[in-house]
Amino acid sequence: MNIFKKMYCRIYQGIFKIMIPLLPYREPKILKDYGELIEILKQENIKSVMIVTDEGIRSLGLTRQLEDEITGSGIKLVVYDKTVPNPT
User: Fold this and answer.
1) Looking at residue 4, what is its pLDDT?
2) What are the Cα distances from residue 43, in Å, to 23, 49, 57?
3) Who has the most CB within 10 Å: 4, 18, 38, 55?
4) Cβ(31)–Cβ(37) under 8 Å?
5) Which of 79, 76, 73, 65 is nearest to 39 (CA)?
6) pLDDT at 42 (0 to 100)
7) How far apart are the C-alpha atoms of 21 and 17, rounded to whole Å?
């Protein structure tokens, strides 16, 4: 590796290591059910949602309840199920 590129990478990593405590991270909020998710989406005035999954998960029906809750609340839903599990 080029010595200047290596120096640049090390400086870049060092700056991020120093800045991590100063970055505004939020604690994740654990939701109990889909109803809470719908409330948050409405509070944030979100009118459309995209779910990204793969065909296997969707064909098993694991996203069906979530899809029904979102569409039942009047929020537009798009499902992209063409992702590849464990890509190389």
Assistant:
1) 92
2) 25, 14, 29
3) 38
4) yes
5) 73
6) 95
7) 8
Q: In terms of C-beta density within 10 A (0-12 exposed, 13-18 middle, 19 or more buried), how is residue 70 classed?
A: buried
Which residue's structure tokens are 């991270």? Answer: 25
Cα-atom radius of gyration of the chain, to the nearest Å? 20
SS3 assignment, position 64: helix
Closest by Cα among 33, 34, 83 to 58: 83
- The pTM of the full predicted model, rounded to 2 decimals, is 0.67
Q: Give the other-Cβ count within 10 Å of 5's Cβ.
A: 9
The pLDDT tens digits for 34-45 are 999 999 999 999
